[in-house]
Specification:
2 domains, Peroxisomal Thiolase, Chain A, domain 1
Length: about 325
Amino acid sequence: MTGESHTKIGIAGIGSALPRAAEDARPAAPLVPSAESTLFTGGRTRAVLAPGEIAEDLAVAACRRALEEAGVPAAQVDLLTGYVTVSEFLTPNGLFRVHRDLELGRPTMVVPVNAEFGTFVMALAFAWESMRAGRFATALVAVAANWSRHVDPRNPHAALIGDGAGAAVLRRSSRMVVVDWICDTDSAEYGAMTMAGRPDGVDRPTYRIEPDSGVAAFRSTGMDGPPHLIHRLLHRNDVPPREVTVIGHQASDVLLGHWRKRLRPARVLDTLSRHGNLVIASPAVTLDAYAGRIDTPYLVLFGLGIGSYQIATLIRM
């Protein structure tokens, strides 16, 4: 069921924050021969946290920019949702530090949503549903990633991984009105891609794509899942692809090119070549970069999760 017949809730403000430094998106170590090698292409530079910088601080900066654009004081935020990955602690999530540093009120509910690359889109959908139910008037969605510190540089995907944060304010608004969302889950791919401790002496959780199941998931669900899901979302809302701009996960030019071919929207926007794969922050950072230049009637934000799942949200500009 779409939401336009009810209260119009939209993105009233958007913000992003990136590390001070950038570096070439080239392998920093000799690559291990892998079936991944042809899948991860497209980055020229990537945003990378310097020593002493942390993802939580980027999230706070992004939130402040989103709140300022929306004209909303921090005291009016009823719900803070999203995620920081990889957080300082296994629990609590760094989102609570964001709450503290923004000086949000005690009544503000904090809901961490650990959904990997689709976190921003999923948290946006959950916040929208809660607001439609009348539980909250203003929601702040914040995501931040520091995965450049949690990859093995010998793997092909590692050189494209960047760091960054994005945030969005949801409230009653005629701007970027959320219309509908859709999700699909394939838990048979559980374990194909993981962030976990490793038995090889690495002292921090490290992202891994399994040589067989992980590459197969990339080539099947990763490549064909989002186009199929987005077409279903557009069809049930009577929206033709030519009226849509698409922003989503940005792991590689291989994926982006395939999605453009299968979706045939007005355009697919990305920041991969400039900032790298910002993991959960890519959709928010890209939306912030292009929001003022989107000239189509509709926007689709989509994400992927390594559980695995795909999720997409339809927004009327």
